[in-house]
Amino acid sequence: MLNAGRVATRLPVQDMDRARAFYSEKLGLEPSEERPGGLLYRCAGGEFALFLSSGASSGTHTQMGFEVDDIDAVVAELRKRGVVFEEYDAPGFTTVDGITEVEGNYPSKGGTGERGVWFHDSEGNLIGIGQPIR
Question: 126-133 and 113-120: which strand pairing?
């Protein structure tokens, strides 16, 4: 039943004004809808919502991801806007200037792997950006 449904991410925020400013100023995104305690964003391939929550995100795992065609251009633009990317150094998973390459990641997407970066939003949510390696 769920395979016919649309996936929509929900991210908790503690300060809606701060989160709105981050998503606007740093990511260039504006909400398409607003309700008390929530903002809805629509992108080309899906949607996500920010909701006011007393619970904080752990920020220890990817909570939402964007897939792009040119990760280098996206990272360069976001850095200009002040986004700080995470650096990781673990066996088989090391970032170089914020970007890592993961071999064999999701070959069904038509690639041999994926290049990826991660950053935390103003509320501690860990956001990923990926580009299939073709």
Answer: antiparallel
